[in-house]
Prior knowledge:
Blueprint (H helix, E strand, L loop, with lengths): L1 E8 L3 H12 L4 E4 L12 E4 L1 H6 L6 H6 L6 E6 L5 E6 L6 E4 H14 L4 E2 L4 E7 L2 E9 L2 E12 L6 H5 L6 E14 L7 E6 L5 E9 L4 E10 L13 H11 L4 H6 L2 E5 L3 E7 L4 E2 L2 E3 L5 E2 L6 H20 L6 H27 L1 H13 L2 H7 L8 H5 L1 H9 L2
Parallel strand pairs: 1-2, 1-10, 2-7, 4-12, 10-18
Antiparallel strand pairs: 3-6, 4-5, 8-9, 9-10, 11-14, 11-15, 11-16, 12-13, 13-14, 16-19, 17-18
Helix pairs in contact: 1-4, 1-8, 8-9, 9-10, 10-13
Amino acid sequence: MVAVDVVVVGAGPVGCAGALRLHHAGLRVLLLERSAWDRVSPPQLTSITPRALHDVESLGLAAPIREACVTRGITFRMISHRGAEVRKQHPPSEARLYFHRPPVDLAMRRRVASSGVPHQAGVRRVEPLVHGGRVTGVRYENADGEHTVQAALVLAADGRGSRLARAVSLPAAEVGFQRVYQGRLLATDAWPDDTLAVLGTGMPGVTFLVFSWRREAGRAVYVELETDLARHPEALSTASGGPEAHFERAARSQPGLAGLLAASHPIEEHSAVTLMGVRRTRLFVPGMCLVGDAAATVDPIGSSGMLLGVQGVVDLAERIIRDGVAGCDYRAWEQGHLARVREIARYAALLRSSVDHPWRMDLAARVMAAVPLAREHALGTMNGTRPFTEMWSPSRMWSLLRGN
């Protein structure tokens, strides 16, 4: 039997970040991962804010993110289905960095290995050890057989379908959203700028995100259809042609998008992905905390899910380092993290409604056109020092326009 301070289950970005921070502080850590060590997330683009990039600098993760970036500065465009448009230039010092996720995930695992964090990959089964109402470790199985690990704390970073959470009967997950995504990667010269665009379609609950960046030869555009399945269950109906037909119908409803598709040729097409939102009312039982997607899967706006998870686990690690595993106030951390989840969920709802409701989109466009980025940063609306919803609530937007 092995004894450690903390067992981390799941070697995604959140699990790796937590394991690295605790290991660097001198705690005995064991990281367990179900997949092969060199198997990472499927191809996808994600983003990170300058502030969040600074937060992961000490973990050694900033360099691989910068290397995987496809943009340094970006033009943000908001386009209503009626054709109204606003553009705002974000220079490299203030813009989100958009990057390919797989090489970053792989770099994080390599960082774990090179830092000497004990880890096991190819774990087929992990279950908690419970004694007297407290989690006291885990039992796992791999190619070498069954193993038991005693631990003062278990960090469950095993995804939104967390088996560890089910095993200790944490409250049932609540579906915060249900969406389908279908993306197409295209080669085109139709969009000359490094651009992120939010396109309204005039179909409530349906949005297009268009992302353009330079490639070695020419340009690439990633077009992603996002549909709220609660309001458009027919999107996955085979009778209506399935996600591909839904993509085409929605594209025809957005002026200019059909032309972009016609002027492009596909590089890669991703199949439709259905994503269910998970939010929990509790993240802690004695001896175990849920982190990352095991704790909450938020509506994925601008990589908020990954960043929220990393922020949450690093915050928890700092509390453990300061107060000790036994002395840490896990309930206080739980309440703080749940508050951040609720804040991002409200922000996501407001941002989506900006596309669904033209009056709100027009107001948001006026704010982005009228308020300098430097002022937004000073107010804390762009770098996360103020709650997200303060920027996108109608009262806050009017205040910004009035210069308050």
